[in-house]
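Sanity check

After download, print the first record. It should look like this:
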Amino acid sequence: MLSLSVSQRLELKGRAHVLKPIVIIGNAGLTPAVLEEIERSLKSHDLLKIRVMNDDRDARAAMLQEICEQLKAGPVQHIGKTLVVYRPLEVPIAKPPKRRQGKTVKSKKQLGSRT
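Expected structure tokens:
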């Protein structure tokens, strides 16, 4: 399980606030198929919000613990029926290269008094 510092968790909570749940755990609980879906989602998103349709708080906490242990993720937040987990991306998403500024041709008017 990935351990997160307090400042990391606070930053991740802020990022997770605007996210919508990607995975929903139904009445069947934490099945292997659900774990595979969470794994697949963590490969493309580093921060994941999960909705649990279970009324037992202790069961939800146990699910969060199991998810984090099996998938080597860090627990960020458990609030109500929503769980937030974090795992850094294996391959960081590349930023697009910066565009090179080519020479711009200036008109006679733009050149003005430069002679």
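If your output differs, re-run the checksum step. Summary of this record's structure: The radius of gyration is 23 Å.
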